[in-house]
Amino acid sequence: MNEKNTNTLMHRFLHWERTQPDAVLFTQPTPDGRVVDYTWKDVGDQARRMATYLRSLQLPPNSNIAILGKNNAHWIMADVAIWMAGHISVPLYPTMNADTAQYVFEHSNTRLLFVGKLDGKTDGWNEISKVLPAHMHVVTLPMAPATDAQQWDALIDKVQPLQEVHLPRPEDLATIIYTSGTTGKPKGVMHSFGNTYTYAMGAGDFCGTTPNDRVLSYLPLAHGAERSFVESNALCHGLHVYFNDSLETFAQDLQRARPTLFISMPRLWTKFYLGICAKLPAEQQKLLFAPPEVSNPLKKHILTLLGLESVRMAFTGSAPLPVEIFDWYRNLGLELLDVYGMTENFAYSHYSRPGQVRLGYSGQALPGVQSRIAENGEIEVKCPTHMMGYYKQPELTAESMTADGFFKTGDRGEVDELGRLKITGRIKELFKTSKGKYVSPAPIENKLTHQKVEAVCVTGPGHPQPFALMMLAPDARKALQDAQASEILQAELQTLLDSVNTALEDHEKLNYLVIVKDIWTTDNGFLTPTMKIKRNIIEDRYLSKAQNWSALGKTIILETD
């Protein structure tokens, strides 16, 4: 790993602002159909002007300043302005509810809030606005909901760019990232400027990142994974960031970007696959396995349709991919590299190496990372990007570490002969059936991956046998409306259930599958921003129905039953 540890992302930003001022840093689509390019000079000018305004407020040094909004160019401009003014940024999810927002505002003593693009989340903002502390300043970014707060454009028009920006040291606190978590109140993970820079240099070495690279920003910037992959890499390596305007324009925005580096979650990789399968007749799909002179033009055509024809490195993470989908992409020439990391190490832990991918494994430790499996099966890691600690929670910070300085991830895992890491579940997810047997749900959920299943939760504490709750993919949900198609679908799921149960111990065998009516989303709280299930929320919603489901005597149950 490059050891230029006197540098920070702020130093790197100033380097690119000086050496390539006219290169485009951000490409931002707008709701009215326009596409706006911002050069390094543009971004520097706006960030410096906002930093001047922040300085004029005479806030205490290192004040916490929050950013609430969906990804867009001004989100990162606000972040840079906060650092230029000598303060600390606190990113917030646009889906955050008022109770969580109030907790974060109070816990972090937020002095100012930038409110950005929220799309349909104005109801949420209306509730959050009611819990704003009296002392808090509010500034709205372009595309924010209408409020009576100060507006970004109006403020920067009144001031001059800040010339002498704050130059942080690597050991200085840069940001507090509140983890969404799957249970409990969010924890404020503190990261230094050194951590963010070390990630960018390590990831850049791995990917061979250059200013010629392009990425699409669409996963939440409030999450450590997107913050590292997009913002840190862009500021450090000078690459070009394209933004996604909305879910409806995703395909168009992806094709505009034609990214060279792309990261996604299994749900989106699956949606891409299903979308192509719906467009291409079965006979044409068979040509993918024909000799290269026949199949290669079709493969290139498919990747072009997806906007992925320029991708040289593609990443996946957070959950396993169905084997048929992984193989389909590999056959197209796109090897999906599984990665593993967490907010506490700024997403810098394990990456699959090209040519060494093993399905279900997250690759080997990155340079500078040590990892081991504890006696209880827990993955423990020591990373050069490890957090400074949990904000205002020294006891919790101490509890998260071993005596010799390894972080206790809370994940269960195993390592193969090449050092590739496999995540087998969460330490605290074990539940006990009424027979006194313990069940680890994640390995069973991994076996239930299927192209027609979007999310699954295995549960059943206090019941004789575990069972699975399934949310179907959109096309499969539509099939339930047709009697014949529904019958075929349920038969497929029965085959899946039988196959999975054959591979399980007796106490793990699933009693039944339930196809749920609800659509699990981040908005309704069933999923985290990275599309992981919130097990406690799902169990609160469905466990009370389990006794009635069991009494039905069926193995495939529609929630309407």
Automatic annotation (TrEMBL):
Q: Which GO terms describe its cellular component?
A: membrane
Q: Which Pfam family would be a valid example here?
A: AMP-binding_C_3
Report the residue ranges that make up the AMP-dependent synthetase/ligase domain in this protein.
16-391
Alphabetized, the UniProt keywords read: ATP-binding, Nucleotide-binding
Tagged with keyword Nucleotidyltransferase: no
List the molecular function annotations (GO) for this entry.
ATP binding; long-chain fatty acid-CoA ligase activity
Positions the record marks as coiled coil are: none
This one is known as: AMP-binding acetyl-CoA synthetase
